[in-house]
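Hello,

Our lab assistant flagged a job as stuck in the queue for most of the afternoon. It eventually completed. Since we weren't sure the result was trustworthy after the delay, we are filing this so someone can double-check. Below is the sequence as submitted and the structure that was eventually returned. Let us know if re-running is recommended.
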Amino acid sequence: MDFINPSALQVQLLGVHITLFGVIVLLAFEGSSGYGFTIGLIGLFTGMFGSFRETQRAQKEKVD
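-- returned structure --
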């Protein structure tokens, strides 16, 4: 997807927001604790992916 190119920081912030949403679901709804935990884990993995992601600019510099 060339038209969507978020920076590493933007991907990390998305992960933080997803994690916080999972925590809210976990605390607000007693019966949905599994959903909240799962959403929180997805947010953590998204943030970790953003931490180790290289930008396209860095990839182009390696090639050139």
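-- support follow-up --
The delay was a queue issue, not a problem with the job. The result is valid. The chain has a mean pLDDT of 82. The helical segments are 8-28, 33-51, 56-63.
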